[in-house]
Amino acid sequence: MNRFQFVADHHERYGVKRLCQVLGVARSSYYYWTSTAEARAARQAADTVLAGQIRKIHAVGNTYGVPRITAELHDNGTVVNHKRVERVMRGIGVRGLRLRRRTRTTIGDPAAVKAPDLIGRDFTAPAVNQRYVGDITYLPVGERGFLYLATVIDLHSRRLAGWAIADHMRTGLVIDALNAAQRTRGSLAGAIFHSDHGAQYTSKAFAAVCAAAGVRQSMSKIGSSADNALAESFNATFKRETLQGRRAFTDERDARLNSFRWLHRYNTVRRHSRLGQQSPITYERFQERSATITQAA
User: What does the alpha-carbon distance between residue 38 and residue 44 come to, in Å, rounded to a whole number?
Assistant: First the structure.
């Protein structure tokens, strides 16, 4: 119990002076505490309301941490400091999910032709549809099964422009993902696509598809995860937030449904710190509107 509260509860019987002496608190501090009781109660009531809002936001995906919850509160009209959000979240036991160690799935082909690194760890782009990164990650299913997800991510907006899921890691998987990105953008002509040295990406079939689409291939150094860090970070976030502590998806249907829901939410709803806490599609639309206004002016 708070020592000041103890004094308040027993001062009529024992007196404020005596209780403060016994408890080792200054009487001036006690009287200040009593004078601020009304303001303190108001703050506690406001924190209770805020806690309810935080629980509601967090319950949507059980993944958001302090920055994204703060941004969501701001968009909902609640102006609050991130430090207060952190304090209230800590008090009610709500926290965002954290990254786990990544598992590598790259299987290189020493005899394959390699493309130069056109990215150089610069995971940015001046506009959409100019530079992409991609990777393959495994999805654990049941006791021993796996599905595999291939991605194509725009470096300007962080939008997942294309993706594909299959029960294999053959070249067709990454071709399907690139074709999906081409459908999203309409054309990929002139764009750079950066990947690791996995056999799927160094295959002649994938190179032919890139050439037909007007895509220039770029590849990281062999064995260097940092050269494709953005794609690997995306994969880690995806599995952390879809599995949420589970070792594996229940079955293939569970894996596909949860993956589709998260990937759709990632593009349309999930806030991205690099995009000013906007989702990738929201960010792209904002950029389009800004460009239209500039041209009109």
Answer: 10
